[in-house]
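Z., the sequence and structure:
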Amino acid sequence: MTAVLLFPDDPGQPRALAVLGGPGPAGTGPAPTVVQVVRADTGAVTVDRHLRVEADADAPDPWRVVADVLVTRGGPQQVTELARHHPGALVVAAHDGPDCWLLLGSPRDSRVRACWRRPDPGTAAGTDPPWPVWASLVHSWLVAGIPAETVRTSSALLLGPTGSAETAVREEVGVMQEAWQGHW
């Protein structure tokens, strides 16, 4: 189980806690995902069930067509191309190392560039950030009624196990640091 706190830059916007109860970090193919979101402003709980598909995995094309969240490796050009071919996905993401580009909504009204930062550079060095999981979390925040603009201008704190129940790692993600000027 992974928990993530969303901290909007605007203190007037709602904070939220998301708990991922479905598949763990990036897998291959289609991944049915369940995320519970608790909004700090209302206490409302939303349970979001969605299908995440990693487009560069061996998932057949029919899974991509019905996916709520699509993820691939690459940058702005790849995310734009993937979104163009799959207009039904609420979140489309492309990632390359510590950077991820996301298109949110339908129509694609919000562009987001996320940057992964660790407070301790030695923590889990050499591993790719779990961008597919983050794309699922963004989907869940949107479904819970957090506006795309709020998600875009927020940071998040990941609280999750690193191998044992006693050990936890806190990794900061400048989740939605800036809009990017994509290849549209």
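Residues 2-178 form one domain. Confidence is low (pLDDT under 50) at residues 162-184.

Let me know what you think.
H.
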